[in-house]
Specification:
The structure holds two protein chains of two kinds. Helix content of chain A is about 30%, strand content about 30%. Chain A is an alpha+beta fold. In chain A, the strands form two sheets. In chain A, strands 1, 2, 3 and 4 form a four-stranded antiparallel β-sheet that branches. In chain A, a hairpin with a 2-residue loop joins strand 3 (about 45-55) and strand 4 (about 60-70). In chain A, helix 2 (about 85-110) packs across helix 3 and helix 2 crosses helix 4. Chain A is globular, with a radius of gyration of 20 Å. In chain B, strand 15 and strand 16 form a beta hairpin. Helix content of chain B is about 30%, strand content about 20%. Chain B is built from nine helices and 23 strands. Classes of the chains: A alpha+beta, B alpha/beta. At the A-B interface, helix 3 and helix 4 of A face strand 15 and helix 8 of B.
């Protein structure tokens, strides 16, 4: 850990996060969250997803505005390219989750970040989703995240930040571990 | 109803250390033991098991290793004999074959029921151990029929297992040792690995435990660590009690053990492994690096560094119905069995809430848990300090009780 003259500020309120962890000791039930999104088909492979509400801390909660995401497929798939593909949304989710974690862990470890950039790549074999080869899965065969971090810390400390961020990342866990998924028609 | 000043539950190394310290202060007590002294060392250890700590580190209050192999590692049978000798030498008041069935608060003290009668005492020490019952994950019930399932507590030697492949779940001390032994027996072994603690057997020419002991790492106190919950849940070190032999993941994979991620699920007979293996290995490598830096900072100079853990492509799935796997070893840790404790000191997960072994219920103490008061609390060598300090606290509590009686009498 490096001592800086000004207090380390990565814009993360670590005290608030630690306060939540403290509060869980007395009221573990407030940890139960539910995340939500709705999706409407627009046309072709183009759909629009909205995210507005969630449940947590024992109550209904709301984002300050409704966030909308247009998702489509590119022209090369004979689609209209009105938005990124769903699998790219997965990369967006992973990259932003890990990067939020890097900032939070850095704050807690008093490491001042100057810049954090990552490039995410995911390999996929179209034989899977096209049903052309039953031995090939639909999803990614592998994901690579490559970070470039400029911070007030040693290389080892930066590696430890990135490792700890993966250890505490929801999206990393969702991608690396199986999850039960129920899809119903009402 | 017989009464005493302190009832100690469990005659393992912690219960006996506590007994020794109480006796030194002439505090009247009994040690209640469900079976015999060192029961788990007699009944729950595999044949080849040796302590992870070298013999010179086998220290208890009033006892030190006097044999001719200070750098060796005691076998389970030798630990049993050592604890029997210790109990004899201390003249510990052990009541064997006495199973505690309940401990309750009653009139400013405790009533301890056993299958051999009931005791009353103002103080009780829970010393029945952190590793009493194997902790097998709930997904074990999804394992297809026909696969032999065992835990390290029940395992004895490779000869007892059916031929064929083995899936070892868990890569702490037990998991890596059994993976190594079963691989050497000629069985194909897959090792499912979550968070783990990588440790070389020797560093800078000495046993790693020598460095941890001498540099003070093992003496770090529970009220000095940043995150005690995490410190108390750190898995055991990847070590085997064999001179100079390291059983880290690089050693195992070079020998031919197949490495896989944490066992994350079993679906339709397929074991599913987490894709997080590179990160848990990175975490363990970084943590080992920090430990070696700490040792170097204490010792001066710089020692060797170990090659990063090599994680090649690892399986994400394994068909458990194909016949490839005939045995699953659940090396997924242990938990205490305190089902007989009827005192409101448990958290929502059934663990005793304590401050360095002192519970919120006056006169009720706990010993022998990971990082109870120090990093070494989980080692035999940690019992001496913990028992001495808890005895001091317990004696203070007895003095306070006596003072209260005197005041109310006057």
């Amino acid at each position: 850990m490096t001592t800086t003259e000004t207090p380390v500020d990565n814009g993360v309120n670590v005290e608030a996060l630690l306060g939540v962890r403290e509060a869980l000791g007395d009221t573990p039930e407030i940890a139960q969250f539910q995340w939500r999104s709705t999706v409407s088909w627009v046309n072709g492979t183009h759909s629009r997803s909205d995210v507005e509400t969630f449940y947590g801390f024992g109550d209904e909660q709301q984002h300050h505005t409704t966030f909308s995401y247009d998702v489509d497929h590119p022209l090369q798939f004979a689609a209209q390219d009105k938005g990124v593909t769903p699998v790219e949304i997965v990369l967006v989710a992973l990259g932003s989750c890990l990067t939020a974690g890097v900032a939070a862990v850095a704050q807690q470890r008093s490491i001042q970040l100057r810049s954090v950039r990552a490039t995410l790549t995911a390999e996929m074999d179209l034989h899977g989703i096209l049903g052309a080869d039953p031995d090939i899965r639909n999803g990614f065969s592998g994901v690579t995240v490559s970070y470039q971090i400029d911070a007030d810390a040693t290389t080892e400390e930066i590696k430890a930040l990135v490792a700890q961020s993966q250890k505490r990342s929801a999206v990393y866990d969702i991608i690396t571990n199986p999850t039960n998924v129920t899809v119903e028609v009402c | 109803m017989p009464s005493t000043t302190t009832v100690i539950v469990g005659a393992g190394h912690c219960g006996l250390a506590m007994s020794h310290c109480l006796a030194a202060r002439s505090i009247d007590h009994v040690v209640l033991e469900r079976a015999e002294v060192a029961n788990s060392w007699r009944t729950q250890r595999w044949d080849s098991l040796r302590l992870l700590t070298p013999n010179w580190m086998t220290r208890l209050p009033g006892y030190g290793y006097r044999g001719d192999d200070p750098d060796g590692y005691l076998s389970a049978r030798e630990v049993t004999a050592m604890l029997e000798d210790y109990a004899d030498a201390s003249a510990a008041p052990v009541l064997t074959g006495t199973t505690v069935t309940s401990v309750r608060v009653a009139g400013g003290g405790y009533v301890v029921r056993t299958d051999q009668g009931t005791w009353r005492a103002p103080t009780v020490v829970l010393a029945s151990g952190a590793a009493t019952v194997p902790a097998v994950p709930t997904l074990a019930r999804l394992v297809p029929a026909g696969i032999t399932a065992i835990t390290p507590a029940g395992y004895r030697n490779p000869g007892e297992l059916p031929p064929g492949g083995v899936l070892v779940v868990g890569a702490s001390a037990s998991g890596v040792q059994l993976a190594d032994e079963l691989h050497r027996s000629g069985r194909p072994v897959t090792l499912a690995i979550g968070e783990h603690v990588r440790m070389p057997r020797t560093y800078r020419g000495r046993d790693i435990l020598w460095w941890l002991d001498a540099s003070g790492v093992l003496d770090q106190r529970y009220d000095e660590v940043d995150d005690l919950v995490r410190a108390r849940n750190v898995p055991s070190m990847q070590l085997v009690g064999s001179p100079g032999r390291t059983v880290d993941l690089n050693a195992l994979s070079s020998a031919g053990v197949r490495l896989a991620g944490r066992l994350a699920g079993i679906q339709d007979g397929d074991a599913q492994f987490s894709g997080s293996l590179p990160n848990v290995c990175a975490l363990a490598d970084l943590k080992l690096g920090r430990l070696l830096n700490t040792i170097d900072a204490w010792a001066g100079g710089a020692g060797e560094r170990f090659a990063p853990t090599v994680v090649r492509s690892t399986p994400l799935g394994l068909n458990l119905r194909s016949g490839e796997i005939s045995t699953i070893v659940w090396a997924t840790g242990y938990r205490p069995d305190l089902s007989w404790l009827d005192v409101p000191v448990l958290d929502r997960k059934g663990r005793v809430v304590h401050d360095g072994g002192v519970t919120a219920c006056r006169g009720l103490y706990l010993i022998g848990m990971p990082f109870l008061r120090r990093r070494k609390s989980s080692l035999i060598d940690g019992a001496a300090c913990d028992a001495a300090e808890l005895t001091t606290h317990l004696a203070g509590h007895l003095d306070a009780l006596a003072g209260r009686r005197e005041r109310s009498a006057s």
